[in-house]
């Protein structure tokens, strides 16, 4: 605009130097034409930075009175003079009360009205700090994250550092979110925001810089009325803070020597929260083993209180219901679930019934803006009684079946143990025991013992039959036993006879050969002195009755004679 003011001067000099100076009347006429033009161009104009097509609650605005000459300025809001007397008027946290007409005056000239309208909602996209803090060291950088539920196609970001705006190109790899790192911070205050071609935009993210080693960090900024605000004394390169004191307008609000923490939380922000804050920090580094501690004071920071944007309300009925009593116009609703961050799970209607437990919230969505996120609610799905009963019945059936199998197994094992072994050794019974069977004496004759009869001659088995062990024809005590069957002979018995025996000569059955009849040999005492016993001879394999042989050997030291058995003959 300055070049327009010097046009008359340049034209006058050009005409004068060329010797073609006009007459006085014509010269005055030319000046009369250009002077109003110069006055018109020198009239102040109001401009805004950053250049935002829409302004939302919490935005930082700079209104500038653009004029060529002038050192004194006045500002008017809705035709009422305001306090600022500078060329630039800063609105640190825009609110609906800042909506209206703005004018500036310089050189006794007023600008045209400049209209500002601040929306009571939040912008449709979210821009947050992924890595870094709200105050960074000069020359460093932050990492930012842009998120939009409707996608990021056609989006780009802008940066304003007090002098001019620049564009940040985004490399979109995901549909709904992108993380990017701007260039190093070289201004005291840098404002970031993002927008698309359809006038949708994100919130602003303001980063301050300092050359100090300490800083007062605040989150979130700007402070929102009714919400909490956290202030922390921060030292780069160490956490060895021995004392931290936070001041608000030179009044102590925190002393870590008593609280043991460099962090102070304002639970509910009010208008009285607004003010100037700083940290007084005493600290040391881990590597420093000797010497006094460091002591530094952070830069002053102003806290401006932002009016809370319109907020949705989440209520619980049979499920989750979302409403926005303060919203106007056509709107839809979106529900979110919190994991590591809020993630959209459903959109459209104002009601949903979650299938899983978790922390939920919602918001109302308009054309190019949205409400503040609602109150959060921890939801637990209702228990289906029928499903619980069926589940319990199934568990009971499984447990009952397992118990039944175990009982049957134990019962079988007990029955098996009670039955005892299949074979059992029977004890010898005394004669006095009533539970035994007597061997009856057949015919009532004394000394005759009866045994069960084995089998009849013709192979017919007679039950309860027996044969007597007879003494007929026996002299003395001659006992009879059953004979042993030979290869071809009939069964019978032979008597152990005492005939012709002197003393106690005992007879046993001989062993039958392959074709011979059974016989016996007597153990004789004939010609023997004392108790000399004889054994049966072994019947040869060819048959014949065996005979007893005794070979006497005189022992010179004993009166008894030792009997040796006859040498066994090998038989096939």
What's the short story on this structure?
The chain is mostly beta strands.
Task: Explain the overall architecture.
By secondary structure, the chain is mainly beta. 13% of the residues lie in helices and 34% in strands. The chain is built from five helices and 45 strands. The strands form 15 sheets. Strands 4, 5, 7, 8 and 9 form a five-stranded antiparallel beta sheet that branches. A five-stranded mixed beta sheet has the order 13-19-18-15-16, with no helix packed on it. Strands 23, 24, 26, 27 and 28 form a five-stranded antiparallel beta sheet that branches. Residues 1-8, 18-23, 28-37, 439-466 and 481-572 have low confidence and may be disordered.
Features:
single chain; 572 residues; mainly beta; 5-stranded antiparallel β-sheet; 5-stranded mixed β-sheet; 45 strands; disordered N terminus
